[in-house]
Give the backbone structure.
Amino acid sequence: MRGPGPGRPGPEWARDSIRRLSAGRGAVARSWRDRPRRLLPVALGLVVVLALVGVVVVIVNGVTAVVASPQCTVTAPPNSPGLRPTWSGSVEQMDNAATIAGVGRKLGAPDRAVTIALATAIQESGLANLSGGDRDSVGLFQQRPSQGWGTEAQLTNTVTSTTKFYEALLTTPGWAAMDVTEAAQRVQRSGFPEAYADHEPEARTLALAFLGEAPGGLTCTDLDLSEPPRETVAGLATSELGNARLSGRQTPEAGWAIASWLVGHATRLALDRVAYDGRTWTAQSGTWTRTGPADATLALHRAGTP
């Protein structure tokens, strides 16, 4: 894609669920448009790994083992026409979706803007922070340094690139009255403008969960929390939400928005438990369950701490 302003053609770039098992993220991004959207086995000597709907099948010297792979799922409220009932993605995808929604809330962006941002990132990068793409395109939104979006370092910083997308969208005259395709196209100027609309149903489902309008709508299962946290909760919350105070009493919408944001970032922050309003998600169960009376209180717990 090209820089902010009219006249910026740019192709779509997406990703598939075995990108990190391939020979390199840049090579996958470049080859994606030229091959069918299907899962391909990756042979590495005597080891064959297949990514199949959240399950990894590993064959070593003829011995087969089935290992659950980490996965996150958003679920729309019942009777929600126009929304994907459920949508599942990788830990990386949901981590980036949490960032996009969180930054939108920090900027005071309307819900519709968050949906547009999510649909755009799904189309442009498959919700991956790509290090390359078409020409010099990089990041979640495949923004180009040569077209005035910023430096490569800025555009591969997910908070900065997301902020730049919102700033461009929110200053587009009449964006709020446009459909997703038109609004995204005014910002992106893609060579495949109709493709943004393809992702509106899942983008709306994601937005509902991350904006606190679908209580307990995000779950993550089989997370690997063995690595230490990559950053502090307070630091990430300040960067993405503009507020480091998360625990304690919260209004229902803010409480569930923060709870979903925490679950979406659970691997990055090494969180094994998030609770709000008497319901608790744990990394062990991967689900939200009733654990106490409704009390509008939010709490979190880091793996390996008392």
